[in-house]
Write a structure and sequence with these properties.
heterodimer; A: 156 residues; 6 strands; B: 9 helices; 16% strand; CRISPR-associated exonuclease Cas4 (chain A); PDDEXK-like_dom_sf (chain A); hydrolase (chain A); exonuclease (chain A)
């Protein structure tokens, strides 16, 4: 989740990591949760490995991440890459990631590319810096904010 | 949007599958749980632990009122939004006297601004309230110099005294209202104020529940009052805007009159039918929206209370100085 938020909004990352959560009433978050729960219901779901929570795993060595929409595709991809990175640390390096958008009928393969390790490690470093910073990052003033569960808190 | 449910009838409130059902000899009625934000219980309701667990899962607060219509307590589910950071800093903001005073002042400053705004609305040719408005302004100017919570409360008390003294002038019923009395209210207007203030208090409590703030750590009121005193603090700001304006409208439209009350021993209590009128109007008001300047979108009065909690949170985590809500329209 940290990697995902890092690639969307650093302020959200800070708030989330300080347990300042505003998502319990957000309709988009609720819909996302239902999509994740109701799709691919024949699969066993939610594998916790380390601190990552993989939506589901298939025997042909694929890990699957279910998302409601592709508006944050970059962040979605980074999240899977991070999972692949963690699995690689355990010696599992021939795993494929699949990004699923059941409502859009889209699925997308994700691989850990050559330079991804370096990018991920750099992001992890930065994430720690942000989380440990006493000061909260500024609002990003982006049009994505309007739909965010944290909008009212950030902009009031 | 989720809403409040007000239960007057006697009966049993139960969980039925994934919904709520209220049952008695005559009727049974489903209440969709997704739709419920808080429940007010005025009648005699029985329920079991299966129900309380279900209410807890759905983050629903329940407020209980006794036979006389006085607020007696709330079912407040375990905090689901916990942030150690906010909790610690909220406690520090209380313990550090300067920090506490700063926030407490802001509550009174906003509350009294909103009070004087109400008077300005009624200050017309036929009702001249210039003197009272001026006196309140003079008292408000003293707020900056206070050095203790007691002093602050003293000024607030004086402002309220002036404020209440004006009600006889612009309410077009013979209310004979001179001073605020509680426990028990001897005048029917006092009884009305007590009831409506308890609605603001409980609504605020529900809103606090949906934030990371601890409702027992307050700044203006003393936390040792064994109540959710932060709710009392924040309510101060909204009493003039939501509560008092509701009272003025109910009285001036003759929706509530002396006849709406029954006298019992030394109590003057609202009839159930009157409570229903008030609750309906109160609910309407909470749903009313205004265009919010900062958020650039429409927000309801209820949301304004939530936003007030957010602003306080931001102050507590030292992000942005808290400025209490002052009516801007």
């Amino acid at each position: 989740m940290h990697i995902y938020y890092f690639n969307i909004c650093k302020r959200k990352l800070w708030l989330f990591s300080h347990n300042l959560n505003f998502e319990d009433e957000n309709i988009d978050v609720k819909i996302g949760k239902v999509i994740e729960e109701e799709s691919y219901s024949s699969q066993k779901k939610n594998y916790m490995i380390d601190n990552i929570n993989i939506d589901y795993i298939k025997k042909n060595k694929t890990i699957h991440e279910i998302k409601k929409s592709n508006s944050f595709e970059e962040a979605n991809i980074m999240q899977i890459k991070y999972y692949l990175y963690i699995l690689k640390e355990y010696g599992l390096d021939d795993i494929k990631g699949i990004l699923e958008y059941p409502k859009l009928y889209i699925r997308k393969e994700v691989h850990l590319d050559k330079n991804d390790d370096i990018i991920i490690e750099k992001q992890i470093d930065e994430i720690y810096k942000i989380i440990n910073d006493k000061k909260i990052p500024n609002v990003i003033d982006n049009k994505i904010c309007k739909k965010c569960a944290y909008y009212e808190y950030c902009y009031v | 949007m989720k809403r409040s449910y007000y239960l007057f009838s006697n009966g049993e409130l139960k969980r039925r599958d994934n919904s709520l059902i209220i049952k008695n000899d005559k009727t049974s009625k489903y209440i969709p749980v997704e739709d419920v934000n808080q429940i007010y219980v005025f009648g005699e309701i029985s329920f079991n632990s299966k129900l309380t667990n279900f209410l807890f899962q759905n983050n629903i607060t329940v407020h209980f009122f006794n036979y006389y219509g006085y607020y007696s307590g709330s079912f407040y589910p375990r905090e689901s939004l916990l942030s150690g950071d906010v909790h610690l800093k909220q406690a520090v903001s209380h313990l550090n006297f300067q920090k506490r005073l700063l926030i407490a002042k802001e509550f009174i400053d906003s509350a009294s601004f909103n009070i004087s705004r109400n008077l300005k609305y009624y200050n017309r040719k036929e009702v001249n309230l210039e003197t009272q408005i001026k006196d309140i302004e003079l008292l408000r100017n003293k707020l900056n110099k206070v050095n203790s919570i007691e002093e602050l409360m003293g000024i607030e008390g004086n402002i309220r005294k002036i404020y209440y003294s004006t009600w006889n002038f612009f309410i077009n019923q013979n209310i004979n209202f001179h001073k605020r009395e509680k426990h028990p209210p001897k005048n029917w207007i006092n009884s009305l104020i007590s009831f409506i203030n308890s609605l603001i208090y409980t609504t605020t409590l529900t809103e606090i529940y949906h934030t990371h703030l601890d409702p027992t750590i307050s700044f203006l009121h003393s936390p040792s009052e064994r109540r959710f005193s932060l709710s009392l603090d924040i309510s101060e700001i909204f009493k003039p805007i939501i509560g008092d304006r509701l009272i003025f409208s109910l009285l001036n439209k003759n929706m509530i009159t002396h006849e709406s009350f029954i006298e019992e021993f030394n109590h003057i209590i609202l009839k159930d039918s009157s409570k229903k009128i008030i609750l309906k109007e109160f609910d309407e008001r909470l749903k009313q929206t205004i265009k919010h300047k900062k958020l650039n979108k429409k927000v309801s009065y209820r949301k304004l209370i939530r936003l007030e909690c957010y602003k306080l949170e931001k102050h507590i985590i030292e992000e942005k100085k808290y400025e209490g809500f002052k009516i801007w329209w």
